[in-house]
Amino acid sequence: MTARGGPCIVTISSGKGGVGKTTVAVNLSLCLSLAGKRVLLIDGDLGLANVDVVLGLNVRHTIRETVQEGRDLKDTLMRIAPGFSVLPASSGVPEMTRLSSQDQELLLSSLEGVAEDFDYVLVDTAAGIGESVLWFNNWVNKHCIIFSPDPTSMTDAYALIKVLTTRYDKKNFYLIVNQVESVKEGKEIFLNMESVLTRFLGITPKFLGSIPRDNAVIRGVRSQQPFLQKEPDSRAARALKQLSRGFVEELTAV
């Protein structure tokens, strides 16, 4: 679906932790909302939530209560800014990472109901190839993969894409290279990944762009404020604004 015919739902995933996935997801969501889009960010790391930490939220209700108590998800929504809402998850609740198939169906059905009120729904999954990562990605048909120039990050991103392609027949991948030293480095890393994915998996990913390594990002995380809001003229913020335009163009074209 597209933002014109229904919500555009996309997972934000990474092969490993530490690549800035949640920070990118939060700032991208904010950027889209500032452009006039209605955006929902779902914290899909059901057992170790981080979106609330990055935003400095005082969370009262989480997705866990929908699964375990039947709470309406709309009562869990937190409005962060005009057009930007968050569905927070729980932290330190390991059973949420091992939901039964019945609980998975209940949750995804509830999420589909909430999603109808938005133009874009971003699901910030856990890192890796755990069970919740896979079924969230199986729920949608558009997958944004974030990785850094670190060889282990690239290897793990490839592994995640391989699982989603071979096990679930997923094809629509959109790549973001985070923490790069230059635009040139970001493009070269993407082209390398594209070559590998085309050769071994027969898929052609789309490049959404890269985000530079920038101390503004670190300052934003430490102050629990989106760097886009705290330092809107920083290198990272400018790159993210450009990336968000590509995000809208590419993801609504399919």
From TrEMBL:
Matching entries from Pfam families are given as: CbiA
Please give an example of a GO cellular component term from this record.
Answer: cytosol
Molecular-function annotations in GO: ATP binding; ATP hydrolysis activity
Question: Gene3D superfamilies annotated for this entry?
Answer: P-loop containing nucleotide triphosphate hydrolases
Asked whether the keyword Nucleotide-binding is assigned, the reply is yes
Superkingdom of source = Bacteria
CobQ/CobB/MinD/ParA nucleotide binding domain ranges (all copies)? 10-226
Secretion signal, residue range per the UniProt entry: none
Q: Which residues form a coiled coil?
A: none
Write out the entry's keywords from A to Z.
ATP-binding, Nucleotide-binding
Q: Which InterPro entries match?
A: CobQ/CobB/MinD/ParA_Nub-bd_dom, FlhG, MinD_FleN, P-loop_NTPase, ParA/MinD_ATPase
Task: Mention one GO biological process in which this protein takes part, according to its record.
Answer: negative regulation of cell division
Which residues of this UniProt protein bind ATP? K16, G17, G18, V19, G20, K21, T22, T23
Q: What is this protein called?
A: MinD/ParA family protein
